[in-house]
Every structure is written in C-alpha cells, then in structure tokens.
Amino acid sequence: MKRNLYLAIAVAAVMVATTIAEAADVSFSGQIRPRFNIDEDHDSTTSPQEFFDTRVRLNAKANVNANTEVFLQFQSVGNWGADGGGRTHNGTRVSTGGGGEQANDNLSDVGFHQAYLTLKNFGGNAVDAKIGRQEIVIDGHRLFGHTGWTQGAQSADAIRLTHAAGNHTLNYTYIMNSEGDSATTSANSDATSHVVYAQTQGVMGGTLSGIFVATSDSTSQTGSADTENWYTIGARQKGKMGGLDYRVEFYHQFGDAGIVGSTCACGITDIVAGSAESADRDAQMFGVRVGKTFANVKG
Questions:
Q1: C-alpha dihedral (10, 88, 226, 186), degrees to nearest 10
Q2: Could you tell me which residues come within 8 angstroms of residue 288 by beta carbon, excluding any fewer than 6 positions away?
Q3: Which residues, other chains included, contact 44 with Cβ-Cβ below 8 Å and sequence gap of 6+?
Q4: Which of 90, 170, 173 is nearest to 132 (CA)?
Q5: The model's pTM
Q6: In this structure, are residues 30 and 73 in contact, taking their beta carbons and an 8 Å threshold?
Q7: Is 123 in contact with 163 (CB distance < 8 Å)?
Q8: Is there a contact between 104 and 3 (Cβ–Cβ < 8 Å)?
Q9: What is the pLDDT of residues 160-172, one digit of tens each?
C-alpha cells in the first residue's frame, strides 16, 4: 500500500505540475479515517464479524485561472491484516491492503475516487460545467448522495451543468452508470441517468426543490430486448417556521421493471416463473421531519 500511495502522490504531482505555470493556486490535502466495525445479523447461530478498516485519501486541487479548476482525489480502502482478495462490506466491493506476513508489491488498491474539471461560465454563458468522476449530492442525499458512512463512498462518471441566478438554481446531470457495449456484436448493456433539478430559495421560510430523473438500463440482458426505462419525479421543502425546523418531501417512481418472469416470479402478482412476462414500477415515498433547535443551552 505504501508503494502505491507514493505512486499516487507522484502521479498527482505530475498532473498538477502541467498547470503550475498558469495556476494561481495549487493545494494538497488528505484524509486518514480508521474505523472499528462490528457486523452482526439477527441469526443467533452466527457470530458477529469484527474488523478494522481504513480509508486514505490524497487530494490535489489546482485553480488554473478564474474560470478553470482541476480536482484529483486518490482513495484506498483496506482492511487490517487482510489479503489482496478484497471483500464486500454493506454491498460495496472494496480493495484491501496486504496482510502483515505477505509481500505488498503486487497490490493495486489505490485509484481515483474523484477526478474532474470545473469550467465556470462555460461557453461564455452563465453556466458552470463539472466534467469527470465526481460525488453527486442532491438535497439530503435522498436520491443521490456520496454514502459517506461507507468507507468506499460513492462517486460517478458524470457531466453536470449548473445555472444560478438570484434565488434560483437549475441543474442538469448526465450520469454514465455502466458502459458495456460489445465490440463484436450488437449487444448493448449500458445504463444511464438524466437528472433535471431546480431549487428556489425564500419559499415558506426555506428552500423548495424539484427533481426529475430518467433512467435507461439494459445491463441485465444481452442486446436491447429488455431495456428498462423508468422515471422518478419529486419535490422537497425544507426550512424554518414557527420556531421549528421542518422538511417535507415526496417522490413517485414509475416505468419498466424488466422481464422478470424469465428468471423468477419474484413475488409479483400475476407473474409466472419461466414466462416472458414483464412488470411495471409504481412506487411512492413520503417523508416529514420536524425538529426544534435550542441555542446557548448548557448540557
């Protein structure tokens, strides 16, 4: 791991050095986050799993000029004393460091968590563009967030265009969730999302936001015969009123759920296992949070 970290530092230095002649500001930062975990399920016949893991990050940021910024973030997530095989934690595959009794020269557990270019006033318009691998956080992480409570966190390859004026903000995000086109056949196994997000401040003592997401996913099948297209639309209001902090949000999702009958009935009414029957999505989520903030209170 140490060797890979040195390599990451060298790569960051080389990449940032190409803009030093122009950059007005170059900065480095980082993070080391060790954590002790206890994983335990409801089954009394199994034993809890206890382990240490650590997240290490190295950041390099260069302000090339008033309208251009480059950000690189290297990340390594590993478990203490583990071999190089990796493990799954909370559904996320993470790389691991080497055990104390083995050579570490073959490990490749350092990679880019984020690497993006920010262009302000893109194309001479009042639009900021962020291009590359990045964490996408919208509102309270309800639909899109970095899942920072996991060591590996979450980032995506995306293009984000943001326009802000007065108390309004409008954002469009294109996300390449998965790229799997075949070079020898017509098979298409891509997954993409298009996100349109709008926010207005000063509404009912807070901020009103709306979101629309269109997702197309053909990764579950060979070819495009079972491409799933589904949509999510919702709104969120957060603010203060009558001395209370509040948040109200509602989301509705609809569209295709794919040809599920070919593999299983999946507990869906009127779907027969082994058939070519498909199912639709139709789901809602509604949430309310109300709280009170006490200032200057001891204890």
A1: 40
A2: 246, 247, 248
A3: none
A4: 173
A5: 0.79
A6: no
A7: no
A8: yes
A9: 999 999 999 999 9
